[in-house]
UniProtKB/TrEMBL annotation:
HAMAP family: RPE. A divalent metal cation binds at H31, D33, H64, D173. Substrate binds at S6, H64, G140, F141, G142, G143, D173, G174, G175, G195, S196. The active site is at D33, D173. It comes from Ligilactobacillus ruminis (strain ATCC 27782 / RF3). InterPro entries: Aldolase_TIM, Ribul_P_3_epim, Ribul_P_3_epim-like, RibuloseP-bd_barrel. One of its GO terms (cellular component) is cytoplasm. GO terms for biological process: pentose catabolic process; pentose-phosphate shunt. This is Ribulose-phosphate 3-epimerase. The keyword ATP-binding does not apply. The lineage of its organism: Bacteria, Bacillati, Bacillota, Bacilli, Lactobacillales. The gene is rpe.
Length: 220
């Protein structure tokens, strides 16, 4: 399973050191939460932070856009060095166009679903995307509890992938710890985002190791 530490819970005054620490600990992805204060009730940062971190890291930059009309910012994230852009299906009227644009800009695409949004709503674009992100909390904040009722949706995304011979990754985001990662993997998740679990206790190295070990306990 790929572990994607979320810098939302990192030390913003020492971001470079935290990014280095997770890279050395064996993470392959860096999850970067972009919030605009409209789509969610929180503000974080924009492509300028992605640009500043890019020369410091070889991690795969997974940019989760919690913004209205994400199409406006795709060019900026591509120029900043994003590897993947995730857009909420609830945040755009033009999901198909947004996904095409992400690919034209040379990035991997991801469609993101809030806990209240069904797989049904995203089915037309599932054949097009590189990844599907199932939110396992309502977006906007770190440190929330994993919503068990989202597990059936992870399983549904995996079932649909197999039935239609598609090859998207299934990412989960929110409330991931050394227990919930097992539940998510058993249901079909292949990428796990973790913010507070990685950055708010012990060292990021210890926490990432625990996540990797926990996920290995589940066969897939
Ligand atoms: O997108 C989000 C929150 O909206 C996440 O990526 C959080 O950063 C996850 O934080 P934890 O639940 O792991 O603390
Ligand atoms: Co996120």
């Amino acid at each position: 399973m790929i572990i994607a530490p979320s810098i939302l819970s990192a030390d913003f005054a020492n971001l470079a050191a935290d990014v280095k620490a997770v890279e050395e600990a064996g993470a392959k992805y860096l999850h970067i939460d972009i919030m605009d204060g409209h789509f969610v009730d929180n503000l974080t940062f924009g492509p300028n932070v992605v640009k500043a971190l890019r020369p410091l890291s070889n991690l795969f930059f997974d940019c989760h856009l919690m913004v209205e009309n994400p199409e406006k910012y795709l060019q900026d994230f591509a120029a900043a060095g994003a590897d993947l852009v995730g857009v909420h299906i609830e945040a755009t009227k033009h999901a198909h166009r947004v996904i095409s644009k992400i690919h034209q800009l040379g990035m991997k695409s991801e469609i993101v679903l809030n806990p209240g949004t069904s797989i049904e709503f995203a089915k037309e674009v599932l054949p097009l995307v590189d990844s599907v992100l199932i939110m396992t909390v309502d977006p906007g904040f770190g440190g929330q509890a994993f919503l068990e009722e989202t597990v059936s949706k992870i399983a549904e995304a995996e079932k649909y992938r197999k039935e239609h011979n598609l090859n998207y990754q299934i990412e989960v985001d929110g409330g991931i710890n050394d227990q919930t990662i097992k539940t998510a993997k058993a249901a079909g998740a292949t990428i796990a985002v973790a913010g507070s679990y990685v950055f708010s206790q012990n060292t990021p190295e210890e926490q990432i190791k625990k996540l990797i070990e926990a996920s290995k306990q589940v066969e897939k």
